[in-house]
Design goal:
Blueprint lengths: L19 H4 L11 H10 L7 H11 L2 H11 L16 H10 L14 H17 L7 H14 L2 H14 L3 H4 L3 H22 L4
Helix pairs in contact: 3-6, 4-6, 6-8, 7-8
Length: about 200
């Protein structure tokens, strides 16, 4: 893995045409119809040595209460995820004001996300990820990615493993950690790489 950001390479070998399986919008169908697509996720992003069970348990005691509440409000699961963030309690009025300030996470339209119980499974993934990387904590972009992975895999453990694998493989810490200046620099560098790849594949643009 190169030391500096450079996720996108402009070369003939690096350009791959998506297969029909990869073009299926599986996130809107749900896990039962996505076994082939889920297998592609597992193939491209194999499990890491970061274990879901370890961090989902640690999150109960170590996750910052504000992060836990933000996840609850974003997924609207506060009724089914009690017990997180035990260190701080607020009254109902404060909780209501806080929930109004947290944007609801846009989720794929699958049955499992239509109930608080189904969304709470995604919440466990987000809490585990926030505990694994407290610098990032809850981030709507990573949460949206996790939601779509889980819509295909249907597994909390597998979703967490893939999310961590993506974060490491593509060095997303360059986008989500550090100062705004360094994040912007990495973003501009990668945008330039993407533009070069586009010009290579479609020179008439």
């Amino acid at each position: 893995m190169p030391e500096k950001p450079g996720r996108f390479k402009c070369s003939a070998k690096s350009i791959q045409i998506a297969t029909p399986d990869q073009q299926v919008n599986a996130g809107w169908q749900g896990p039962r119809l996505c076994s082939n697509y889920a297998a592609l996720w597992r193939e491209k992003f194999p499990p890491t040595n970061v274990h879901f069970s370890q961090f989902v348990l640690r999150a109960q005691d170590e996750l910052h209460p504000d992060v836990a509440k933000t996840i609850e409000f974003a997924l609207e699961t506060s009724r089914v995820t009690k017990g997180f963030g035990k260190g701080r309690r607020g009254n109902a009025e404060e909780a209501s004001r806080s929930s109004d300030s947290v944007p609801r996470l846009a989720l794929p339209a699958i049955p499992s996300y239509s109930t608080p119980q189904g969304r709470s499974k995604l919440g466990s993934v987000l809490r585990a990820f926030s505990c694994w990387n407290p610098v990032v904590g809850y981030n709507p972009i990573m949460a949206a990615l996790a939601a779509r992975i889980m819509a295909v895999t249907g597994s909390e453990k597998l979703t967490f493993q893939i999310l961590v694998s993506i974060y490491k493989k593509y060095r997303l810490k360059d986008y989500f950690e550090g100062t705004f200046a360094t994040q912007d620099e990495h973003l501009m560098n990668d945008a330039e790489e993407v533009w070069q790849s586009i010009q290579f594949e479609w020179p008439d643009l």
